[in-house]
Each structure stands twice: as C-alpha cells, then as structure tokens.
Amino acid sequence: MIQILFILVFFGLLFIKNSILLGGVILILWIISLKDAYKISKRVFKSIIFFNLGISIGYFIMSFFKEINVVEYLVYINLKVFSLTYFVFFFFSKVDMVKFFSFSKDLSYLLTITLSQIYSYKKTFEDFRLAYKARVIKKVKNQEEGFIKRTFEFFLKKAMSDSKERSLALKARGFFDD
Questions:
Q1: HSE-up of residue 18 (Cα within 13 Å, Cβ side)
Q2: How many helices (H) and strands (E) does the chain have?
Q3: Cys-Cys link to 107, which of 57, 101, 121, 163 (CB 3.0-4.6 A)?
Q4: For residues 50 and 136, which has the higher predicted lDDT (pLDDT)?
Q5: What is the spatial distance between Cα 49 and Cα 22, in angstroms, rounded to a whole number?
Q6: For residue 117, what are the CA distances in angstroms to 45, 84, 159, 167?
Q7: Are the C-beta atoms of 96 and 40 separated by less than 8 Å?
Q8: Dist. CA 113–CA 96, nearest whole Å
Q9: Which of 95, 124, 152 is the last residue of a domain?
Q10: pLDDT in tens, 126-162
C-alpha cells in the first residue's frame, strides 16, 4: 500500500507543470516535515546543487546565444528537481527503505548491496578524516589538498575494485543474462 502511495505522489509531482504550484507543493512538504524541514532542505540542496547548477548554466548560455528568455523554465526545472528530491528524502526518512523494497527479492538484494557499500565508504571516509585531523596540528592548504586528492584516489580505486567484484556477484546470481 505504501509503495502505491509513494508512486502516486511521485508521479503527481512529475505531472505538475506550473512553477507556482510546485512552490506550493514545496511549502506543503515543509509544513508536513516541520521540525525536519531545514535538515532535509539542506540535504536536498547539497544533493542537487551541482546538477542543477550545471543544467542552469548550460540553459542560460544557450539562451544568451539564441536570444530567448529561459528564466521561467529554469525556475520551473529547479523547483521540480527540488520538490521531487525533497519528497523522496522526506518519504524515506519516515519509511524503512528495506521494508519498502521487500516486495521484490532482486530489489532487496540490490538495495542491500548498495547500502552496505554506502555505509562502508562512509565509515572509511570518517576514519580517514579523523586520522587526518589527529595528525595535523594546524591546517595547511597544501596538506589538505593532498589529503583530499589521496582520499579521492583511494575511493576511486576502491569503487572500481568493488564494482568488478559486485558485478561478478550479480552475474553469478543471474542479474546479467547474456
């Protein structure tokens, strides 16, 4: 039942074509999630900032060369992405994601793999951050940039290695039928 509600609301949001209505939906979502509204909004903003910024700049540049006004469209698209992302974050802050996907053995398995990888990476990053913080007395920009670069390289190598391992595991379970 909860899956149907989620799908209906999600597709309802997709069908909204008016920026003012989307703004109203966001306001309703903020009211519903009153005490968590700031925290969820912050997470949403962090999640979508680079995507929305890239798309918005691209549209803005194209509109400049084609001499058209895309401000209304940019507002609409950014509100749409924000409202959809906010709804998903809010919904899954109230509903257990594992139980939500329990109707499908394959989706449950994929979710379990994904969540275990996320928690593993999060824990590793936190360990790196604390180790760096414990070993550095005063922040030096060059040292911090080196730490960030080495950490990024580590996670890139780890992600490549893990993805090979996970794809083999998925293939062995019949996810990639040839």
A1: 4
A2: 7, 0
A3: 101
A4: 50
A5: 18
A6: 23, 25, 9, 13
A7: no
A8: 16
A9: 95
A10: 888 888 878 777 766 667 777 778 888 888 888 888 7
CA separation for the pair 136, 138 (Å, rounded): 6
Retrieve residue 175's tokens.
């996810």
| 6 and 90 together in one domain | yes
Range of the domain at 48: 2-95
Identify the burial level of 6 via C-beta atoms within 10 angstroms of its C-beta, where 0-12 means exposed, 13-18 middle and 19 or more buried: middle
Query: Which pLDDT does position 142 carry in this prediction?
Result: 67
Is 178 within the bounds of a domain?
A: no
Q: Residue 33's closest CA among 75, 78, 83, 80?
A: 83
The first and second tokens of residue 123, run together, are 């824990």
What does the pLDDT average to over 58-69?
A: 81
Q: What distance in Å separates the CA atoms of residue 82 and residue 49, rounded to the nearest whole number?
A: 10
The residue to which tokens 């940039």 are assigned: 145
Q: 62 and 135, same structural domain?
A: no
